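User: Can you model how dihydroflavine-adenine dinucleotide sits in this protein?
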Amino acid sequence: MLRNAFLWASTNPWLARQLPRRGFARRAVRRFMPGETVEAGLIAADDLGRRGVPAVLTMLGEEVHDEASADAVAAHYRDAEARVARAGLDVELSVKPTHLGLSVSRERVRDAILDLAGGARSRGRKVWIDMEGSAWTDATLELARAVRERTEAVGVCVQANLKRTERDLEALLGDGLSIRLVKGAYLEPPSIAYERKSDVDAAYLRLARTMLDFATTAGTATAASARYAFGTHDPVVIDALRQAGLGRVARCEIQMLYGIRPAAQRELAQAGVPLRVLISYGDSWFPWYMRRLAERPANVLFLLRSLVAR
Ligand code: FDA
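Assistant: Here's the modeled complex, given as structure tokens:
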């Protein structure tokens, strides 16, 4: 119930204007992001790198519907890619297709991602494509395949809460795409998505095992350079995957979000389980922050504490 309320709030334009103006909300959000600029993201990535943990960087933002703004986002990422390369950091970028203007021009988004993939490839890294709400699933998978036809330096996210993902995953594995599996952070209709958390968790484990098996048997020749990322903080899932071989199977890794279960992140890194941490930065954090609250309503306590502490 509370989860749905936060997911509804994430799409509310009035709240999106009001909350980010409040100091207490800005203080609370800092738990999940190091700052609003790419510099803040790079400093956090450098810090993680010194502790042996590579990172993924993403600028917050979505649903850009005009060409000029979409071009500005693409230019921002080109600059971020150049900075990462100059700094020699083991950092990958992750982008949201609607932030790059998917509703404006699919070709431009494809070209912007190809550009970033070119930079990533020359560093032996990948660019990741986030998955947004189900209205964008087909277009996002098409985009990922179009980029994959030209370079292997690309990965796409799939969501375990969507019933279609079992079918999508089989096809994407065959296409040689790198894949990040997540539970799914968007409010979806029950006709296409699992409603109960236990069903989402079970679907996640089934899909994760499919990925792990594929990687263990070395997959297909097309998938020789693909990577498989398990984007989750769920201790039950992580334990099950470790028992099933994660940590020993090449090209498989856990990905977690900055600031979430930091002790578990340290433990995984110390145990030698490949881990990458996704760092978000930017000023358009409202919908993203609402989705973080939806994942764990206990986070609201932090928001309230920040309100009291002002
Ligand atoms: P679950 O929600 O069951 O949480 C397991 C445990 O993790 C909780 O009990 C708690 O301890 C901790 N936890 C989880 N979320 C927390 C939070 N917000 N605050 C504090 N503790 C928390 N989604 C999407 O739709 N498209 C995408 O492209 C991505 N990309 C992405 C990349 C990466 C690297 C990650 C880790 C996640 C995403 N997600 C995403 C988000 C994903 O769909 C999902 O909403 C969250 O990861 C939460 O689900 P968990 O698997 O962590 O499990």
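A couple of observations from the model: The first helix runs from residue 2 to 9. The radius of gyration is 18 Å.
User: Helpful, thanks.
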